[in-house]
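Think of the structure tokens as a kind of shorthand, similar to the way a musician reads notation: each symbol stands for something richer, in this case the local conformation of the backbone. In the example below we present two proteins back to back. Begin with the first one, reading the sequence and then the tokens, and try to describe in your own words what changes along the chain.
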Amino acid sequence: MRKITAIILSIAMLALTACSSYDFVDAVTYSSYSIFAMDTVIDIRLNDEVDESIFKECETIVKTVENKLSKTVADSEISILNASQGEPVDATNSAELIRLAFDVTEKTYGAFDITLEPVCALWDVTDESFDPPNDEALTHALAHVGADKFVLDGNCISKLDGEAGVDLGGIGKGYAAQVLAEHLASLGYTGTVSFGGNIGTVGSKLDGAKWNIAIKSPFDTDAIVGTVKLDKGFIAVSGAYERYKEIDGVIYHHIIDPDTGRPSESDLASAAVICDNGALADALSTALFVLGSEAALGLYNENVYDFEAVLIKNNGDIILTDALENGAFTPYNG
């Protein structure tokens, strides 16, 4: 059985000093570039001086992924699917990702579900006019949720329920990070790509050291709780602090529990997942957040997926999975 280590930390006072939002400064010179796409700021850092044309190429790659997968792009495969009424939809660019998402849904006991789109549409906390939906609206929306509302046949997908829909927001950024990181690595570059809460490494560090990725505090996003050392891979973090709205003293955030159709009320403030697959890391971080610490650790011990995690509870306790012991995770005491 895998081992779990609990670290009890008071993290409210941790300060972010000589480091960027996701990687400590080191001796290697990097060229940086930022893109706004997929509703987030994407930061790309590549070793040494890089011709700006490569960054423009990165922008094209990211926006191509967005145009194929985003439900807010009118002619994307997902928008066409959501608007369909049972006819097969060509999902050549999204079928593999949808298939992975359905697999994660099954293996996380429904804690991650891309078919929550009808429910998520009711919880757009970024909308200035947002009001919490009533029970009747939630009950109606939940009746149209579930992978059983879809038939995936090769690269074609069709709906069995005209009001069903798909939202790849909980897996798409991790997928895009992997597409971009793999492309840059194939060209011989070294560096990192950051898609908001999703960070991917590109190749190996030129100095032979491990990548040093900072985990933000969910209680103060200008602070970090520690750093994870990686040879390669992806880290995805989900937390209630990312997008939320407070109404009459109640905080409503964007991570929905499929069981209730309401914002998750687990004992976790954030969940960070480390693995070799960017899309899987993204989906699992959401699933673990919704499951809560006990069920998240149960999933980890089942070995259904190969991943590690940093779980931060609402009371400030930090729980590490076994491979993050022995210096792989360093608490920040600044």
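Once you have a description of the first chain, move to the second and do the same.
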Amino acid sequence: MTDNVIEVRELRKAYGDFIAVDGISFDIRRGETFALLGPNGAGKSTTIEILEGFRHRSSGDVRVLGVDPQRGGLDWKARMGVVLQSTGEAGNFTVRELLTEFAGYYPRPRDIDEVIAAVGLDEKQRTRAARLSGGQRRRLDVALGIIGRPELLFLDEPTTGFDPEARRQFWDLIRSLKREGTSILLTTHYLDEAAQLGDRAAVIAGGSIAAIGRIDEIGGADARTPMVRWTDAAGRARAERTREPGAVVARIYREGGEPADLEVVRPTLEDIYLELIREAADRGSSTATMKEPA
């Protein structure tokens, strides 16, 4: 049994002249939570649909749970859970009825009461899906995704519509799944969510991977260098990036006394992500300019 649940090598997807995914490669290890991050249109949804077997690739090699997704059968699909951005489940069925129906598709499903409690739908289990609020419907989507006790769980923007308390409860649920050995591929626009749940992450932009690595290392050491900002005696805004912010602050004080507007900013995952996206966009613009005829 391989240590990887997903293996992607030189994956490419083209629609005519438009290249949605441009030769990306990455692995997802058994038991880890891997965050695939990127702006809308970056290629991550196409990548995920290929991994799930919903879309065919143009070229490259892909293995999910040891199987080519283009050839995966029902036994293979039963080993996975999928939470899409939106679903079209029958609204005339209640929460409990839907979960009971879905549980019957799997050889070793979770307890229905346990799942209902885990996603916070105890009081809505007899409610028809069509009558649920947006946030409650999203919880139902998650419940349907985990009812089969999947080895590999795809979570595509899972907490859209959740209030802050519900998001925290969902994070606890994901951590419990991880402790049980579930491997998770997460896409989210909430960078704090990726930082809280992810072991590793890849940032995809323009169909290519801009960075990949551990959550606390992605972007490299330089991207995590703190910034000291202050206003000098002449009223000018100053900033200095340094690995020794305490020493810089001490020097500023020695040279001019207590500085105004002093702050030490340590880059968050969101700061690093935005910088990576900007750099990728700049490279794309430069490449387009170079290809323009003289």
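Compare your description with these statements about the second chain. The chain has two domains: 4-214, 222-291.
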